[in-house]
Amino acid sequence: IVKRYFISLAKEGRVRKLNKKPLRPSADELRENPSSRSAKLRGVERL
Question: What is the mean pLDDT of residues 12-34?
């Protein structure tokens, strides 16, 4: 849902995507916090 929304905003020129692919938790984070394995961080910058 968020992915599609960010893509549509980027096509309209209202935001700029900060990274091409979502950031995933590191191996250390997964070891300390197993529930983070499904987390994906996406970012945009408002223009």
Answer: 96
